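$ run holo --ligand "adenosine monophosphate" --emit tokens
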Amino acid sequence: MVEGRRLKPVTNVVSTKKELIEALPLTGSVGLVMTMGALHAGHRQLVDAARKENETVVVSIYVNPLQFAPGEDFDTYPRNLAQDLELLGDVDIVFAPTDEEMYPREPLVRVNPGEVATRFEGKTRPTHFAGVLQVVAKVLNLVRPDRAYFGQKDAQQLALVRTMVADLDMRTNIVAVPIVREESGLALSSRNAYLSTEERNLALALVGSLRAAREAAAAGASPEETEKVLSEALEAAEGVAVDYATIVNPDTFQRVSSNAKQGLGIVAARVGPTRLIDNMEVTFG
Ligand code: AMP
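-- output --
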């Protein structure tokens, strides 16, 4: 070995809880990034943030069956561990368990995500957030990280994870990472892989409507007027079936009050068979 040369770091890939616990360091800070694989530059941003702030970086790659309802894309969700490991680069531990390892039996004790989980994403996907919080709680308990990194892309998920950690006194700091977008503005998502070239263009209506709302708010529109701009822009778009388009308080996911200074524009829509979500902060000027 040449003295002083930095070798390519070796990632410890483990698939059992026992191996994971044994691989964790006894000292030093640990940062966790939870993913379902099909990794892209959005996930990479979470890993980079974790790398900057922690001595050890743990990434989980697991397509959690509990957060998919029957008829959703659990079976077809893209899975390619070898490719994901290439993209990850400099991380210390990758935890990629099987379903049997994560759920040796139907869990009897379940995390109840509460009322916020019934709105917006939860309205269309009623069992989704209970499944998300179940697996997030399990992996937080296994890894016990100092910090866990979640993307602003899934804003309602982020709010619910923060609420769970607060309400259950979990000792991990939740760090939000801004949305990574393509040059076109499209928010990166593993589900973009389902889009045809034409659908990718149609999908730009999501970010377009959010930008229109942000501009309207900055130019003095009230929260109500801003919401109208947002929903009308998305409704007017061709080839896009709107699920919701609204302005909420980013912590509570309640409608923003009419004298709010800030809000979060949130949209969900189907482009062809693919359901996409996006969001953007708006400041009322
Ligand atoms: P997923 O693999 O889709 O479950 O996402 C794993 C994590 O990556 C979640 O915390 C997501 O919010 C985050 N994430 C996904 N896409 C993006 C993006 N475009 N920008 C930032 N974070 C993202």
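-- notes --
The radius of gyration is 20 Å.
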